Description:
Strand order of the largest sheet: 16-17-15-14-20-21-22
CATH topology of the largest domain: Nucleotidyltransferase, domain 5
Shape: globular
CATH architecture of the largest domain: 2-Layer Sandwich
Number of domains: 2
Amino acid sequence: MAPPSTLVLAVDAGTTGVRTVAVDESGTIVAHAYREFPQYFPSPGRVEHDAEEIWAATQATLAEVCAAMPSTPAALGIANQRETIVAWSRSTSRPLARAVVWQDRRTAARCDQLEALGALPLVRSVTGLVLDPYFSASKIEWLFTSGGLAPTADVAVGTIDSWLVHKLTGGASHVTDATNASRTMLFDLDRLAWSPELCGLFGVPAHVLPEVRPSSGDFGVTTSEAACGPGIAITGVAGDQHAALFGQACFAPGDAKSTYGTGSFVLMNVGRARPEPVDGLLTTLAWVLDSPSGPQPTYALEGAIFITGAAVQWLRDGLGMIDDASELEPLARQCTSSGGVYFVPAFTGLGSPWWDPYARGTLIGLTRGTGRPEIARATIEAMAHQTRDVVDAMAGASGQRLNRLRVDGGASANTLLLELQADQLGVPVQRPVTLETTALGAAYLAGFAGGVWGSLDDITGRWQLDVEVGPSSARADVDAAHAGWLRALERSRHWAQE
Length: 498
């Protein structure tokens, strides 16, 4: 009899593409595949995906990775872009509309209206979130009120994880995990259940929503329709940022990470007790693990930055300034300063700690001497400045200063970014050997439930440092640069509203 497999599959369904990996018992990625999928911008402020194209990218990457695996995987985990909403038919497994992406701002006016009606205290107290079109509830409401969706028994609505699990299990499961549920603005963080009050506020019928389960546990079993083949247990699901926190082994209160992806997201583990709401920041679930006494939640403070890597994509695709993202750092290093140029990439508004859906992108401080290197450097500096804004707010709210920041995501390969980030934060920035910590976290959650890793200590022992960068610039110069950033940011605010 063949020994049981210790390989775990993980699907990281991000905002611009799907990555699938195979992870061995040591925590090493032994196979990987990636596919981008199209982005749709039907009008200003609107961002959409075709859920079938996400499924096709998932199938393609699963097929490629599984072809390279020597044995059937022990389990499968999923991490996903959060807040993006898909509606589909339970009977046909076909989408009923384009997915409304987390970046989409079409419901900004509705969120303003609800805040004017006094709904914000309820939202904050129940969900830990703010009234912003970033979250899922107003998107779901829009689908029913303006998108032509009828709340019939055949309709299922969920985040991308729910959609993929539905497809992988041949329609047998309509489920989500607690971290994804906590980003919908419909989920009660204390009761770990859908909130009837908020479902009523947004007119969301409870029957369309998925069943909520712990992040590490039973989500169903793949069928022959899945490219990885039938019989693989799906045992880990988490929103991408929560999966990255898990993959970075940030298991102790005070541990923090920043993921530089399409956007950037800073999460700090604050332990088993839910913190009070903090202005400018989000309270969210880090993860929920099962135990003999029931689901055990761990909470986090989060700062959500909407645009970082997407700004690099804009330089590449929108302006044609670079041909590949890897060209950004060498181009930026052609100058030692941005020369007073600031780039505020508020293409879809500002997230933490400002929460301004009407902010718009601003490139300011241009002179005749400004060239491609200065704009490239200002783009990287914007990532560091935005992260400092969040960390400053987080430190003020938690009462403790960061000792270090662990980083991951595609842009963390940019050493100039790490140098600028360490300067702005005044603490060491650590990059692990494995940058794909989102996929790794999904694998760990799945393998934790499947017995591949027996404890959180097992996972902690597999974290490996690649690079640590400490602060190197004079504090006065760093603070002066950040003061200029804040001036530029203020000019970007409320632009669309005006």
